[in-house]
Design brief:
Two copies of one chain form a homodimer. With about 140 residues, chain A is of the alpha+beta class. Chain A has helices at about 5-10, 15-30, 35-40, 50-65, 130-135; strands spanning about 65-70, 80, 85-90, 95-100, 110, 115-125. In chain A, the strands form two sheets. Chain A has a four-stranded mixed sheet with strand order 4-3-6-5. Chain A has a two-stranded antiparallel ribbon with strand order 1-2. The model of chain A has no long low-confidence stretch (mean pLDDT about 85). The interface of A and B includes residues 74, 89, 120, 122 and 123 of A. The first copy, chain A, binds a DNA duplex (30 and 30 nucleotides) through helix 4.
Chain lengths: ~140, ~140
Amino acid sequence: MKSIIEILKEHNIAPSMQRVKILEYLRNYKTHPTADMIYQALVDEMPTLSKTTVYNTLKTLTEKGILVALSLFENEERYEYNTDPHIHFKCTKCGKIYDISKTFECFKNEEIEGHKVLEHHINLKGICKSCLENAKG
Amino acid sequence: MKSIIEILKEHNIAPSMQRVKILEYLRNYKTHPTADMIYQALVDEMPTLSKTTVYNTLKTLTEKGILVALSLFENEERYEYNTDPHIHFKCTKCGKIYDISKTFECFKNEEIEGHKVLEHHINLKGICKSCLENAKG
DNA sequence: TCCTAATTTGTAACGATTACAAATTAGGAA
DNA sequence: TTCCTAATTTGTAATCGTTACAAATTAGGA
């Protein structure tokens, strides 16, 4: 696997300690964290880390296409490392967000009602497997 | 067409002037407005209207299923009158949101990877017809 | 008319995000 | 090495959308 430093260099982003740690976190943990969650996870290891740096870094990495920003039903931005195309499922009971590796070619580079479609975001909502099993008791 | 007052009564919501005007606005204008947009549109006609009332009303009507709250790519809630199933297209150039009356049965009451799907939100992003035509100029 | 509950209102608070300017850091030139 | 400059990081304050809350207003029934 490519190193985080390589990935940053390929996109002309200086691989500072903060940027490396933030991107590393997003590549390792597929939890779709918010900026604050990332900050909380890293501040122990980097006590001088600033929340502004987290926001700046997320913005930079998203602009370069390394990360994807998700608007998943709520008023806070979540981020994920941009890998294979997939969609999201959010459990209304436990709040967890799952990746679903099902793709939909139907929207790819298509024109719908005259509009040129460049991206599609599919968000599902319901009760997750784990909560369903707990309910059965 | 059913009157706004009838709709409210059917859902056991007292048809106060404020609630009627807010729901009426959303039924008449399919612009997916934010709470603030609705407030701005109505405050001339109802000078004592409070933004809190707009938020309260939107919350009530959404809980009763009369309205649908949309999380469309951005950190602000937008609302629409709940009619036929449709999906949304947002133009990245002019910011306008279009309704696309295409339905996707593939998600209806389905189980995906063990999760029970109850709702699906499909958000498309790209350049709208009007902006495409302007670009050709 | 009076009473009570529902509704509305305005203010203050909150949380996520951004603006901004100062402080720090890193890398190249002398 | 030291100096210089630009990039990066930091902390504070501001902003924006939203919510909490309590007082004021309204509406409908006794």
